[in-house]
Amino acid sequence: MNEVWLPPPPALGLAQGDVHVWQIGLERSPTELAKLRGYLNEAEQVRAARYYFERDRNRFTVGRAILRKILGLYLDEDPAGLTFSYVPQGKPALAGKTGLEFNLSNSHQAALLAVTTSNPVGVDIEYQKDNISMSDLVKRFFAPVEIETFNNLPAAQQPEAFFNAWTRKEAYLKACGGGISIGLDRVVVTFVPGEAARIVTIDGSGPLVGGRAQSLSGLPGRPCPGKPPF
Q1: Number of structural domains in the chain
Q2: Can the peptide bond before residue 79 be classed as cis, meaning omega within 30 degrees of 0?
Q3: Residue 24 within a domain
Q4: Helix/strand/coil for 110
Q5: Are the CB atoms for 38 and 66 separated by under 8 Å?
Q6: What is the extent of the structural domain holding 148?
Q7: For the segment 85-112, what is each residue's pLDDT rounded down to a tens digit?
Q8: pTM of the model
Q9: Is the domain of 24 the same as that of 103?
Q10: Using one digit for the tens of pLDDT, what is the confidence trace for 40-70?
Q11: Is residue 143 in some structural domain?
């Protein structure tokens, strides 16, 4: 499905309740890459160097640098001077600053960045590989009611349904600060193609009142399965 993305406005501002979502291309020319590398601090450059493949080093550099540039625009500050802190599960935040929430997700050649002033925010993007066993992943990570719904869908709808479910679940769990280490099966979402995105229940309770989700931070989670297994 092709989405229409608008160009950024001349001046950035967030009203209460606004969420801005940015699409970031991670493939850049050598000249632009060299310029973007200058925004990273020493720790980020060390982290980039740990990637085995040059492609992955470059994509991390671009994503982190563009993150700094965009947040710098919202804050009217030098992007290279921003300092990040991290929750125990690894989600970054702006150190010493309140009022601006963000989350970044990258996959393959693209990244998404969500920025808001209202509440903790999460976003997820996944590259749709064809060589994954969706049925096994659904059985392993989804809630029983979701497994039943998925298995009853026509085969042609299952790929879109799978990625709808995965990205919606992970985006919410990232907003809570823990990502999939909290447990994908604890959050039941809508995911049938054409159905509006919605959280149905959390830990078996619901529906949610007014669409506001309770926080899962601090709740005992499942053993972390690591990065998405596909």
Answers
A1: 2
A2: no
A3: yes
A4: strand
A5: no
A6: 134-211
A7: 887 777 888 988 778 999 999 999 999 9
A8: 0.84
A9: yes
A10: 999 999 999 999 999 999 999 999 999 999 9
A11: yes
